[in-house]
Each structure stands twice: as structure tokens, then as C-alpha cells.
Amino acid sequence: MRWDPRVGDAMGACLPAASVFLSFSDPLTGDDGGGVPGGGRGGASRFPVDHEINSRIYLWRGHPWNLEVDAVVNSTNESLDETHSSPGLHAAAGSGLAEECSTLGGCRTGMAKMTNAYDLPARKVIHTVGPKYAVKYHTAAENALSHCYRSCLELLIENGLESIAMGCIYTEAKNYPREPAAHVAIRTVRRFLEKQKSKIAGVVFCTVSSSDTEIYKRLLPLYFPRDRQEEEIAVSKLPADVGDENGETVIDERKIRIRPLPAGAAERTATTAPIDLPFDSGLASKRSSFKLDSYLDPSFMSLIKDPDLRRKEQWEKSAQAQKGFNYAKLLGYGDLGCPSLSAAEEYSLHSRYLAKANSLNLSEIAEMKIIYRGGVDSEGRPVMVVVGAHFLLRCLDLERFVLHVVKEFESLIQKPYSIVYFHSAASLQPQPDLGFMKRLQQILGRKHQRNLQAIYVLHPTLGLRTAILAMQMFVDGEVWKKVVYVDRLVHLFRYVPREQLTIPDFVFQHDLEVNGGRGLIVDPRTKHIYQRPSG
Fold first, then answer.
1. Most buried residue, 5, 251, 293, 305, by most Cβ within 10 Å?
2. What's phi and psi for 431, nearest 5 deg?
3. Whole-number Å distance between alpha carbons of 178 and 109
4. In this predicted model, what pLDDT tens digit does every residue of 279-299 receive, in sequence order?
5. pLDDT score of 7 more than 50
């Protein structure tokens, strides 16, 4: 169903023909109502008629992944596994979807993550995790559900996409009441489009049951009125609480806890309690003069150290480090001037880089194949492959490369993993100094240091061994003592099976040149290495 037929079709070929969308008569003429009975209030409409917004709204009876849109929404669990996803989605998308989901590192309730759509007509799949419902946590569940819809729409815009099809994120397994959840979904989309309508071409609400369809048919005119009459009727039928500017429920009592306190010390000392006043006016005066900061020390309102003080301490650490004799710089390994960070500071640094990495398109870095996922090692641990020869320092944006590293490693560092580093022919390329390596380790965080089990270095040179020794001394002895040197490719397969690695052709060639292929045969078709039969 196209919500406002008076506006031209903005979706074009993205959606099926108009005949397959739902059509219905005016749902506001009946007595069933769309909101909570008696919950509405008179006065100005909180959702006025907006034909431009209405032209972007569709109601579709069927599964969202049958539509040719930019993105479809999958309601899933925090592990993003197939069994808890929208029924039928993975079967329609193919096995590649589950494989990519397994690399995302899960998703928190109220958040969203994006993958390719594989065999679906859509371009992308946005995965989100709806909340479990409990009556005593009604407001928390309502806001988490609202955040699901908003996160999906934000992710759509961040990736330059314009159309989205979303089913009911509030699955029956999580016990969310159907009609209150539909109110949250519809009003959140309405509030989002009020701010971002120029960036979105279409939002399709998809229902698979007749009961959900009837709910949406009743509620859509309340939040997307098509004319002045529907707008006036919606004023009386809308619930009393329709959320804030984002569609979320605001609890007034909680505003005090997060409200910044004004610097009113002088004002506090000048304020005196009124005397000899009538009871009612005295009470009013006390209310107006009440200030929370008269009872609390402002230092208790801050959970983190003052930014200026923290920056000063970092400068002092850096200056102190530079005063000492810099052996690393003397040996030509660069400046290690970046100060050491606490666990909390490393966590904050990692979180900032991860958030920025997830918001950017880093495909040009990924195409360089400097780092990429392998299979698993002989212990069953996931493997990250690093190709030194692909690290072209002169034509690489190091900041974007670091963001790409953080994004790729995020799913691995949550549990034990290994790294395979191909140094084959890498000595011909300039390498980053120790200061860069120390900073990269700080950004990856302590979880990376703790869960990294081994670094298998293939074809190490004397220069590389010396550099790793320097990193053990000056950067991080715990991490760099996990290095395992491997001189021959066939020996690497003792630690990581051949079928678990995608190995560049030049690595095979380099191995033959360095080791002479003694006793070995390389199959040029499969790139497998075999022992030469004796005799």
C-alpha cells in the first residue's frame, strides 16, 4: 500500500507493482480506534500532515526479503545466529550470510549491523536485536525497541542507501505486546523522517500476519495523516505519551541525574530561606529556589578525570619518556614518545577508533589485501593473515589503515586467535617504525594482547628478527614473545593446515627461491605442496 497516492512514485523499480500492496478504506471512521482509549488529548496535532513524508511510507503484506530495496531488516539475537533470525531469511540469502554474520562479533540489544544480502533481491541486510519485554521494565524495552528502528535507519543513511524494508522487529518470542510495539515502530520512523526525509526514498513496513496488518492499518493514519480530517481525528486517538523528538519515552525524574550543574556558588550563598510568609507562598518560594547543587559536591557528578588534567598528565609522561636515553631511536627504530595508557584509557581509545571505523567505507584499504581472515589453526583458533609485501607505506593512508585493522580484528580479539605473517619479499618495502607499532597495540587494546596466542612469521630475515627483538624490549614483551619463526612454507602447515589459508602466488615463488624446493613439489593448479617421492 502506498500511503499517499496523491504523490508520484518515489521508489520506481525498487518495489513490486502497486497492485500487490495493501489497500484499505479510512480506518478512522470506525469505533475501534487506533490509540489507547481515552489516552489522547485535545490541542494542536503532534504529527501534522506532511505529504512529502507520506510519499515515502509503504505497507506490505509479506516477508521483507522478497522486495528489491537497498536494505532489508533482520530481527535476530545478540549472537546473530541463523536459528534466531527472521524465519526464512537465511534460506533465501544462502550460506554466505551466516558466514559473514559469524565475523561481526555479535550485536547488542538496540543496535544494528550491516552485511551483504547475497542471493536476496536487496543490496544489504541490516541485523538488529530487539528487546525482551517485561512489564516492570516497560519504558526500557520501549526505548530499546525505538533505538532498533532508529539504528537501522541511521545505518541506511551512513552507507549511502535510500530504501529499506523492515518487518516487526518485536518478535513473539520476546513477548512484546503487538500493538504498543507498533506504536513505537511507527512513531520512531515518523520522527526520523521529519529530520532525514531528503535522504530516504522509501520505508516499507512488512507484516506477515493478518493481526499485525490490521494493527498497522489502524495506526498509520495516526502518525502519517493524509489530510486535515485524519489529522484532527488523530489528535483525540493518539496515546498521551508519544515520546520525544526521536520517539523515545522521557522520564522526567531522570533528567536531574544527567543535567549539567550551573556554576552558581555565589548565588547559593546569597539565597536565604523566606520568613514571615503565608504558608502557600512560602512553599512556592522554596520550590523555586531549590537547587540540587546546594546539596551535592559537583566533583561527584563527574565519572571521568578532568580532560585538561588528563592531557597534562599525558604530556608529562611523554616529556619524561623523551628526557631518557632513547635506545630505540638510536638504533633506527623510530621514536617511542607516545605515553603509556591505563586500561580505561586504552578501552576508551579503542572504542573511539571502532566507532569511527564502523562509520566509514574502507573498501579501498580492504582491496589491498594487507590483512584478511584465514580459517583456523591446528588448535581450532581463528587466524588473521598479514601480508607484509602488500604494505605499501608510500601510497597508504596510515590513519585509515589503522581504522581498517581495528574493524577487521574486532571479531577476532573477543576470543583466542592467531596471526600468520608472510614476510616473503617484504624486505623490499619500507616498514613502519616502533612508535607506530606501539600506538597500534594501544588502539587494539588489552583484550588483543590477552587473547593473541601466537604470531607465525614466515620467511623472517635478519632485519625482521632484530626488529622483533626491539619490539620485545621497547614495545611489549608479552605480545612479541609469542612470535614463532617459520623458515619454510611446508613447516607453516604444521601450525595452520594448508586448506585454512589463502596464500598469494608470490609467497610460493619466494619459498622456492629461498629454499630451492628441495624434496618438495608444488602443484601449480591447487597451490598445494607435496613431499617429493624418494627414488
1. 293
2. -110, 155
3. 18
4. 444 444 444 444 444 444 444
5. no
The answer to whether residues 444 and 413 touch, using CB atoms and an 8 Å cutoff, is yes
C-beta of residue 243 within 8 angstroms of C-beta of residue 191: yes
Q: How far apart are CA 335 and CA 326, in angstroms?
A: 8
Q: Is pLDDT larger for residue 28 or for residue 486?
A: 486
pLDDT digits (tens, 9 = 90+) for 457-509: 999 988 888 888 888 887 777 888 899 999 998 899 999 999 999 998 888 88
User: What's the DSSP call for residue 304?
Assistant: S
Residue with cell 549491523: 113
Residue 343 half-sphere exposure toward CB, CA atoms < 13 A: 5
Q: Cα separation of 124 and 118, whole Å?
A: 8
CA angle 244, 181, 23 (to 5 degrees): 105
Question: How far apart (Å, rounded) are the C-alpha atoms in residues 118 and 96?
Answer: 7
Give the burial string for 371-380 (b: 16+ CB within 10 Å, else e): beebeebeee
Is the distance from CB of 153 to CB of 196 less than 8 angstroms? yes
527 Cα distance to chain centroid:
37
Nearest to 515 by CA among 483, 482, 492: 492
DSSP H helices in 67-169: 89-93, 95-101, 138-158
Q: Which amino acid is at 41?
A: R
Structural domains for the chain:
12-237 (3.40.220.10), 342-531 (3.40.525.10)
Residue 523 makes CB contacts below 8 A (sequence gap 6+) with 529, 530
